[in-house]
Amino acid sequence: MTTAVLPAVTVPDYEATWRPDWPLDLRRALYPHQRSAGDPTLRYDDAGAAWRTTTTPDGPATVRITPVAGEIRIAAWGPGAVWAGSAVPCWLGADDCPDGFDPGSHPLVVRLHRTTTWLRLGRTGRTWDALVPAVLEQKVTVVEAHRVWRDLLRLAGEPAPGPAPAGMKVVPSPRRVLDVTDWEWHRCGLDGARRRALRAVASVAARLEPHDDCDSPTLQRRLTSVPGIGVWTAAEVVQRTHGCPDTVSVGDYHLKNIVGWSLAGRKTDDEGMLELLEPWRGHRQRVVRLLLAGGSRPPRRGPRNAPTNYRRI
Fold it and tell me: Which residue stretches belong to region Disordered (predicted)?
């Protein structure tokens, strides 16, 4: 019997196997990190494996995550392979502790908590990877934000290490973002306000990465001290960086109405949303995730917001 030898480029720099103790759903676990089906930083192959790129303290990495018979097989390539590969269980929610969550008496929350057994809040430990797309999503439609995200990755993203699917990229470094010219930003369709915010966070990016003593409130304070970064952007970041179970995205165009309609059968504002979520303080983001998975949405009456083409302005 002859054993096939893989080309050197395909041999992972890191490999491991991990078995979660809950019914993990890989696509749902990674969904908060994917910006559209064409996201150059997260793809799925025909075998059901997820390919994800990331920055790390050691450099860029590509990670392949393959579910096989209840196990998760991890392979990683690149300078940051060991750091990224070791972090995969945390990405998927291994550190989340839902045991202290009390769904209370609301019938929808009780039902969703009982049936959504796959839900765990993952944490990546990387601010920059979550912050760049969050800035691009400020005050624009999802379609527009995802288009700019793809254009930015094509323009300035690093090629994914290892045998990643074609077209995959790593989030550009803060230095590379600062080097992007105004004309290149204009071609990507990025307006001046988001451009200035992105340059501001790129200038202090190293100080925004979480360390052992940096909890979610601390990181939010650091983020909101940067010009152009408000409470919504900070919340979107810590939900992914820390897997924060309580921080809610105040200022989101749709979220308040999803929460209001699901819990009270009516639309509401941000203050009303927080009032409805108050019984679950400490786990308000967990309840939001439950409602996003199985709650209801108000009926649509009217045209959708059209994306603004900043490349023509």
Answer: 294-313
CB-based burial, 284-306: b 16+ in 10 Å, e otherwise: bbbbbbbbbeebeeeeeeeeeee
For residues 71, 287, 99, 65, the Cα torsion angle rounded to the nearest 10 degrees is: 10
Residue 241 contacts residue 127 (beta carbons within 8 Å): yes
Report in angstroms the alpha-carbon separations of 85 from 49, 174, 184, 296. 14, 23, 33, 36
Residues 6+ apart with CB under 8 A from 144: 189, 307, 308
Tell me if 145 sits within 8 A of 136, measured CB to CB.
yes
- Any idea which residue has 């679950």 for tokens? 280
How does pLDDT run across 47-58, given as a tens digit for each residue? 999 999 999 999
Of the candidates 51, 273, 270, 233, the one whose C-alpha atom is nearest the C-alpha of residue 145 is 233
Q: CA torsion, points 82, 96, 282, 252, in degrees to nearest 10? A: 60
Q: Are 84 and 103 in contact (CB under 8 A)?
A: no
Q: Which domains does the chain have, with CATH numbers?
A: 9-97 (3.30.310)
Per-residue pLDDT of 170-216, as tens digits, reads 999 999 999 999 999 989 989 999 999 999 999 999 999 998 789 99
- What are the structure tokens assigned to 297, written together? 């949405």
Q: Any idea of the CA torsion for 165, 145, 143, 148, to the nearest 10 degrees?
A: -60
What is the tens place of the pLDDT at every residue in 118-128? 999 999 999 99
- The pLDDT value recorded for residue 301 is 64
Query: Rounded to 5 degrees, what angle do the CA atoms 117, 130, 85 make?
Result: 65
> Which pLDDT tens digit goes with each residue over 45-97?
999 999 999 999 999 999 999 999 999 999 999 999 999 999 999 999 999 98
Phi, psi of 170 (to 5 degrees): -100, 145
